[in-house]
Amino acid sequence: MYYSKGNYEAFARPRKPAGVDQKSAYLVGSGLASLAAAAFLIRDGQMKGERITILEASGTDGGALDGAGDAQTGWLIRGGREMEDHFECLWDLYRSIPSLEVEGASVLDEFYWLNKDDPNVSLQRATIERGRDAGTGMDFTLTRRARKELVQLVLALPEQLHDKRINEVFGEDFLASNFWLYWRTMFAFEEWHSALEMKLYVQRFIHHIDGLPDFSALKFTKYNQYESLVLPLVTWLRKHGVKIQFDTKVMNVRFDLEPEHKVARRIDWVHAGRTGGVDLGDDDLVFITNGSLVENSEWGDHRTPAKFDPVVRDGGSWHLWRNIAAQDASFGNPDKFCTHVEESQWASASITTLDPRIPAYIEKIARRPTRSGKVVTGGIVSVRDSSWLLSWTVNRQPHFKAQPDHQTVVWFYGLFTDCPGDYVKKPMRECTGEEITQEWLYHLGVPPGEIDELAATGAITRPCMMPFITAFFLPRNGTDRPKVVPDRARNFAFIGQFAESTRDCIFTTEYSVRTGMEAVYQLLDIERGVPEVFGSVYDVRELIKSTVFLRDRKKLPVPAFAKRYVEKTIVGRLLEEYGLI
Which of 332, 485, 509, 576 is most buried, taking the most CB atoms under 10 A from its CB? Predict the structure, then answer.
């Protein structure tokens, strides 16, 4: 497998891999990584769909890309997806998936036209003092010291950031800046999260830095993530004969491990309460989603708090990864991610408004109507002085195809779930949907005398507690996540947010699709490049490589006092690699 850029590779169709007609594939989990891998097996690997089986523990496909509920009990979304134009693998996939909305168009076509006609921008990114504009504007408020720390982070080698926290590489100036407010609320970073992942994010989205304050860099789907992304893909896979086997808890994958090879030999599962599984031959491929950000997600309702359940149980994705990791050190370290729940948890809530007075307060802050079918808030609105550090957003409405005209769906989340609120003097994790609504209305600027009545009858709010939602952001080293295809692996791969691609940042739809694509392309030896990460350090590598030939390998003069510093940076390492210093 190799990485590529440009239309020559992007538009090429690979030839049929040798022996693919004799191969079968089992995919553990039905999240986006698995669904994407199945699609690449069919489109680029030319495997017959009926030879592909997806094993799903629950009764619903899509993994973290959910979208459920109804008008009577409230619409349900655990989160949303922010996308941009350089999600190269995601768009490579969805150019081939037919739209369910527009005849003769792909999902990419539909998405492209939507965002051309209705480009995203936020008119008020943050509020303060109960609905007033926080006045953050386009200013990052980065001091000279904070800017220096940011540059040092980008230039650092990855291994220099192994197991380091963000607050170990940034000081108080940076953590008090508008930049950090924008960054942490947009991506759900905490000060104790991985400095390495922070570096990857900055590198990944540096081309969008001027669009960070107003979200003009972002693009969104027409409906919720399930109906806009999962449903078209699953529909296409089913038409090609792919089987999704629900109610199947994969307990273990057993391997034949020898010095010269690693081969998956059996999948053990419990299907519909009965123990079973399948033996695997050399032509049986296995794609394993190890770990899960939404495992143990618990929903509450308007009168009941969401339960906080941090226990790793048999039959879940974390349990599976533990069983796999026990067999070989190269299969990663799941406990690095699933045993620090107080550092990986946060809570969200889906708010379905019923009373027309609530959208009026939304529109005052969004400065747009809620029911135009177009952009409303243009991304999250963060409440700077919130004890919960809460943010909320209203995407294009209706957010669900079956949503009635009089309802508005709001997504709400809080990073500090253990702190008492400003109106409701309780931690968010202990609050009912009604109490969360009260806190939100307070920060919208609703008069205190109206808050309780409006929260009781004017909305249906469903809180959701997620103990592992940012587990992948916890500090890590280079071996805590297994490689997508481990060294000497013959017939298996790891996919999803806890597989190590090394090149991209996590918590994106792009990363899920990238790992699925890399896995399929390696195991089938597909003769087409996986799209390179846009704007990554690997583009710098190519630039330096070109410079080698232009300069006929003449070395660049580096003063002695600076040489030690240069050699300790990623750019310095590349310069040294090509003999330029």
Answer: 332
Cα gap 33→497, rounded to integer Å: 8
CB 112 within 8 A of CB 220: no
Q: What is the pTM of this model?
A: 0.92
Q: What is the DSSP letter of 37?
A: H
3-state DSSP assignment of residue 542: helix
Radius of gyration for the chain, computed over Cα atoms and rounded to the nearest angstrom: 24
Q: Quickly list DSSP for 68-125.
A: EEETTTEEE-S----B-TT-HHHHHHHTSSBPSSSTT-BHHHHHHHHHHHS----S--
Alpha helices in 220-310 (DSSP H): 225, 231-239
The whole-number pLDDT of residue 137 equals 82
Three-state secondary structure string covering 416-473: CCCCECCCCCCEHHHCCHHHHHHHHHHHHCCCHHHHHHHHHHCEEEEEEEECCCCHHH
Exactly one of 201, 223, 413, 423 is catalytic; which is it? 201
**Residues belonging to the chain:** 581
561-568 contact pairs (CB < 8 A, 24+): 568/156, 568/157, 568/160
Provide the 8-state DSSP code for 182. H
Residues pairing with 62 in the sheet: 31
Residue 3 is among the residues annotated as catalytic for this protein: no
Distances (CA, A) of 191 to 96, 164, 172, 474: 40, 11, 11, 10
Helix, strand, coil percentages in the chain from 3-state DSSP, rounded to 5: 35, 20, 45
**Which is higher by pLDDT, 369 or 156?**
369
Q: Which pLDDT does position 155 carry in this prediction?
A: 86
Q: In which residue are the tokens 């408004």 written?
A: 353
Alpha-carbon separation of residue 150 from 137, 145, 483, 569 (angstroms): 20, 9, 28, 13
| Other beta carbons within 10 Å of 375 | 22
Q: Active-site residue among 82, 197, 500, 518? A: 82
Q: How far apart are CA 292 and CA 39, in angstroms?
A: 21
HSE value, Cβ hemisphere, 13 Å, CA-based, for 403? 27
Q: Is the peptide bond before 398 cis (omega within 30 degrees of 0)?
A: yes
pLDDT tens per residue across span 402-435: 999 999 999 999 999 999 999 999 999 999 999 9
Q: Over 60: is that where the pLDDT of 570 sits? A: no
Residues 493 and 485 sit within 8 Å (Cβ to Cβ): yes
> 297 near 426, Cβ under 8 Å?
no
Nearest-angstrom CA–CA distance, 437 and 434: 5
Residue 466: φ, ψ to 5°: -130, 100
Structure tokens given for 10? 């992007």
- Taking the C-alpha atoms of residue 252 and residue 266, their distance in angstroms, rounded to an integer, is 8
Asked which of 91-95, 133-137, 485-489 is least confident by mean pLDDT, the reply is: 133-137
Instruction: Could you list the beta-strand ranges (E) of 137-180.
Output: none
* Sheet strands side by side (includes 248-258): 248-258, 261-271, 274-279
Go through 302-338 and write b for each residue having 16 or more CB atoms within 10 A of its CB, e for each that does not.
beebbebeeebeeebbbbbbbbbbeeeeebbbbebbb
Q: Which residues pair with 492 in a beta bridge?
A: 286
Active site (annotated) includes residue 82: yes
